[in-house]
Amino acid sequence: MRNQPPVRRPRSADEVRRAVPALDPAAEIRPVDEGGEHSTWRVGGTGVLRLALDADGSRRQHREIALRDTVRRHTRIPLPASVLAGFWAPGLSFTLDAALPGVSAERRPVTRAGEEDLAGLLAALRTLPAAVPAALGVPRESPRAAAPLYEQARGAGERLRSDGEFPRGPLTLAAGGDGVPGPSGEALLHHDLKGEHLLVTPSGGIGGVLDWTDAALGDPAEDVAGLAIAVGAPAAVRIALGAGHDAAVCRRALFLARADTLVRLSDRLHGDDDSPPELLRAQRTRAWRPTALDRDAGADVLTT
Fold first, then answer.
1. Please, which residues bridge with residue 206 across strands?
2. What is the pLDDT of residues 84-108, one digit of tens each?
3. Mean pLDDT, residues 102-128 taken together
């Protein structure tokens, strides 16, 4: 069978309309700056159109729509709902989702009310039987090994110190100083709880959680680590404990978050990552804020 030629991604509002003729012809269409890996467009003031760019993206998008519908029944946090779905090119899907209120957590802080919202979400993900998302095709992901990540982070920390990007002193990655706990069971993970995927309302509550395409069954500490990077380590610990996770999950999450932020910032400064450096610095600072689980908030635990 002859291979299909690559499909050109729509680059303008007119091309989007031709690709998805069912869109409201009167609606303004404009590109979205954040999270454009699916080719994402605003449609009027009420819709977000995402175009899958390959067969794997289409499979993930179909799985995401079904998973969101499932999770929505177990949490009070709004999740995007697909109001129109289909194919914009042979084998390439699209979904038009209803827009949710709020702005990125990178632009507005989460209050204690928002922390309670997120605790409810993590509790729902923690208690949802694994068979439910597995039946939708959500993949299982093996927990990350601590030792190689520690070595990566230690090297990254030394490079950042040489660059003047990180304080001098002992590099204490494990909260409490007793080593890194192993993974504690398995849970459904959003697996990308970064700031741009958390919509925060003017009151500081959570108006929505976006982009479930990376969802997996795996180590529950991963989502807590994402929150440590997005909203700060102290808030992430409060959220996790409020969701019913124990201190071991929190300590493992702090290790993952702190190691990841050192590695990513070092990679960016040395040419292996294209993320904005100021965003990576902000994420590093949030993840390294001292928590109740840190016995000694010394020079390595940032306090800004």
1. 200
2. 999 999 999 999 999 999 999 999 9
3. 97
Tell me the sheet residues that pair with 103: 200
Question: Which residue's entry shows tokens 């999950």?
Answer: 249
- Alpha-carbon distance of 237 to 239, in angstroms, equals 5
End-to-end C-alpha distance for the chain, whole angstroms:
59
pLDDT digits (tens, 9 = 90+) for 6-44: 678 899 999 999 999 999 999 999 998 654 455 899 999
Which pLDDT score, from 0 to 100, does residue 179 have? 83
Residue 47: other Cβ atoms inside 10 A: 19
Looking at per-residue pLDDT, the higher value among 169 and 64 belongs to 64
Residues in the chain: 304
Report the C-alpha gap between 78 and 234 in whole angstroms: 24
From 233, 225, 220, 231, select the one nearest 198 (Cα to Cα).
Answer: 231
Q: Report whether 292 contacts 176 (CB < 8 A).
A: no
Q: What is the DSSP code (8-state) at residue 140?
A: B
Q: By C-alpha distance, which of 210, 241, 215, 214 is closest to 228?
A: 241
The tokens of 7 are what?
A: 């499909």
Mean pLDDT for all residues in the chain: 91
* Residues with Cβ within 8 Å of residue 128, at least 6 apart in sequence: 70, 71, 74, 187, 188
Buried b (16+ CB within 10 A) or exposed e, 169-191: eebbbbbbeeebbebeebbbbbb
Q: Tell me the whole-structure pTM to 2 decimals.
A: 0.91
Rounded distance between C-alpha atoms, residue 108 and residue 26, angstroms:
32
Residue 74 pLDDT > 60, yes or no?
yes
107-126 exposure pattern, b = at least 16 Cβ within 10 A, e = fewer: ebebbeebbbbbbbbbbbbb
